[in-house]
Amino acid sequence: MSVSIKTAEEIEKMRLAGRLAGEVLTMIGPHVKAGVSTEELDRICHEYIVNEQQAIPAPLNYRGFPKSICTSVNHQVCHGIPGDKTLKNGDIINIDITVIKDGYHGDTSKMFFIGKPSIQGTRVTNASHDALWKGIRMVKPGTRLGDIGHAIQQYVESQNCSVVREYCGHGIGKNFHEDPQVLHYGKQDTGLALEAGMTFTIEPMVNVGKRHVKLLKDNWTVVTKDHSLSAQWEHTILVTENGFEVLTLRDEEKELI
User: Fold this and answer.
1) How far is it, in rounded angstroms, from Cα 196 to Cα 218?
2) pTM for the whole structure
3) β-bridge partners, 205
4) What are the tens digits of pLDDT across the range 71-83?
């Protein structure tokens, strides 16, 4: 699969899908609190996406994934399956939303604190968030993917955290996962040069301990091998003629641009 350059019409559809994905994260925020189960969060998001947005939750039945969102709690790195686990004070959770609207995907995730987080929970969450934005702000035609990966890795490691290498950002559009792969580590001046019209995700997974991960027996949930906390934030990005547009930007983030 080669990297697709989106047309103006496709970009408009990507904007809509991205906006809807961001709105799901805004909607679910008040429900993310101690005592709620991740299955209940999945139910609320599913009903909102299907009934309010008239959109499709992309994860549901994607390669057999059984739920409409991913919920990754504490040492879960990504692809956590919602279930009967109830959230408790001190937990950190990543909620990952992908919606399909008019055939195009919007993909985004956000960390939430349950009550007062631990010092480590705060540190790893902030490191991932700031690393995401360091990567986003580098996006413009001519920047190479290795430059973005290098900047993210250098920042994360400066915060005494580590970057997961087995999972990465990806091109996105009509397909959930397209070329290119967007690594969150790397060497400067290597990799694909960005062009206007490309759309892809940046989504650094950051561990407070070592970078090594393992896949659980459900064949989806990824956890840190050393059981240390992990955090991730994600946005879908468009390369514009002179920079970037965050297609999944939420109202609460507008001051970051």
Assistant:
1) 39
2) 0.97
3) 232
4) 999 999 999 999 9
